[in-house]
Amino acid sequence: MKIHEYQAKEILRGYGVAVPRGKLVQSAEESVAAARELMAGGKGVAVVKAQIHAGGRGKGGGVKLARSPEEAGEIFKRIMGVQLVTHQTGPQGQKVRKVYLEEGCDIARELYLGVTLDRAIGRNVMMASSEGGVEIEEVAAKHPEKILRAVIDPVVGLAGYQARDLAFGLGLSGNAVNSFVKFALGTYKAYEATDASIVEINPLVVTKQGEVIALDA
What we know:
Structural class: alpha+beta
Helix content: 25-40%
Mean pLDDT: 93
CATH architecture of the largest domain: 2-Layer Sandwich
Largest sheet: 5 strands, antiparallel
CATH class of the largest domain: Alpha Beta
Strand content: 25-35%
CATH topology of the largest domain: D-amino Acid Aminotransferase, Chain A, domain 1
Number of strands: 11
């Protein structure tokens, strides 16, 4: 069963994974009110996101920045109900029936994090890459050396040292290392507890303050 981004983030939040504040909206009026609330912290922008079961929403026009509450309402009107076409939907696209508003982030870096079962070895594997925001299949084909892997012991689970090794391999330092370790451990707990076949966070972002946050999931 596939779930929407907003649903995935709600699950991840329950396992201590940092996600931006957001709100599901059903009308332009709700979008204006939600954007006003999300912008109140001084971020200055809100992100309006179409919710479909496919990647590539940004390139397909389904993710837009709003710099005022009123602009968020206008973007909602343009997105809701359209057939959104991405490289994963096929030419027929998918109809947008849900829209999610989210607070903006001060992004310093975009990374990738995923966990799934490697059937060739019969073990869960956590993968990380410095190439966030890019389809992991594309990275694997063009730059396989940029994908880091941690093979997880089924008895022990993801170990703290494995998460730290991934953090260092990604070039993280200072507060970002501890933030990443907590993030990775929480992500694996969510994967195990929900019996998921795959969890992907792309991109995972490091903010200018050294926080690690799931920007998409």
